[in-house]
Amino acid sequence: MAEAPPEIIWEHEVRRLLHYGELIPRLETALGKFSKRNSAEVIQPVRTTVPLQKHSGFLGVMPCYMENDGILCTKLVSFYKRPAGSTLPSTQATVMLLDPEYGNVKAVMDGEVITFMRTAAVSAISAKLLMRPDAEVLTILGTGKQAKSHYNVFTEIFQFKEVRVWSRSVDRADTFAGSLNGPVTVCKSVEEAVKGADIIVTVTRSTEPVLFGQWVKPGAHVTAVGACRPDWRELDDTLMKQAVVYVDSRESAMTESGDIILSGVEIFAEIGDVINGTKPACREKTTVFKSLGLGVEDAASAQLVYDKWKQC
User: What angle do CA 131, 146, 306 make, to 5 degrees?
Assistant: First the structure.
């Protein structure tokens, strides 16, 4: 009913309800629908951003309507470039699920867990499709919450002989390693961390390249998650130009990704094209998946949380 107050679903409840085993197939379906560009399946504009110059941040608004699925959703996310050592969060997010017929808000839920888990799950989907099947070494550049969610999903669904991590701060890297449920090698330099790695995940706050193509093993798969502004980068031109480049959304990448815009590379495909079978997965080549995060990912995740919440 339109008069019913919205459900409030807090962080610990979202964490209890959301699991990768259920989330990954939902996101694969959603990404496939997105790449079909059928307005009855998905309507999702590029994220709107409002600069918060005084605080070195942005407010992003990410609406999505999935008509055939009856899902109307939007996320409000604030993200910041924090100085080293800052105790302030780099992101804050809230997701709202609405009734598409009445227009009322059905649920307001914590968006942090959804953001970290759906981003990591999509990275894992890219790896499942693009990573060589004999991959043995995973490297994670960065030690924030996204690094933790990526470690969790990659070690849950894949088996690696070695996991490496790098941070600008050795202390942060050691603390991060100690928080994990499995063995990890702390590396003192990016070059050391990525040498011979089969898959590299970049989840840094960097605005300048930290990963250089000359260090990357031919045939490696790189999932680039940081650098979500048109003038921010994590990957250098050499890597971008020697790789086959996949994205979650062409429009988003050409609007928001400094790695894509500043290198001038051609986007080969969306990951949804590979899911749909309309573009190949070039596993034998070096591949880059540039992830910016999509409203359709939030919508599918929020609906999963809400469905499970109503079953409780």
Answer: 100
Provide the CB-side half-sphere exposure for 293 (13 A, CA): 30
Among 202, 141, 213, residue whose Cα is nearest residue 176: 141
pLDDT at site 303: 98
Q: How far is CA 52 from the centre of its chain?
A: 22
CB-CB contact of 198 with 138 (8 Å): yes
What are phi and psi for residue 154, nearest 5 degrees? Answer: -70, -35
Q: In what order do the strands lie in the sheet with 48-52?
A: 7-9, 105-110, 91-98, 71-80, 57-66, 48-52
**pLDDT tens-digit readout, 183-213:** 999 999 999 999 999 999 999 989 999 999 9
Q: What are phi and psi of 164, to 5 degrees?
A: -115, 155
Whole-number mean pLDDT of the chain?
95
What is the mean pLDDT of the segment spanning 129-142?
97
Provide the b/e sequence for 14-38 (b: ≥16 CB within 10 Å): bbebbebeebbebbbebbbbbbeee
Q: At residue 252, what is the residue type? A: S
- Residue 143's φ and ψ, nearest 5 degrees, are -135, 25
The pair of three-digit structure tokens given for residue 34, joined into one six-digit string: 């997105």
Q: Give the Cα separation of 293 and 66 in Å (integer).
A: 16
Residue of 64, 58, 59 lying closest to 27 (CA atoms): 64
Tell me, yes or no, if the pTM score tops 0.90.
yes
Q: How many CA atoms lie within 13 A of 199 on its CB side?
A: 30
Block residue for tokens 């079953």: 311
Residue 234 near residue 175 (C-beta atoms within 8 A): no
Q: 265-274 pLDDT, tens per residue?
A: 999 999 999 9
Rounded to an integer, the average pLDDT of 156-179 is 94
Q: What's the rounded Cα separation, in Å, for the pair 33 and 155?
A: 27
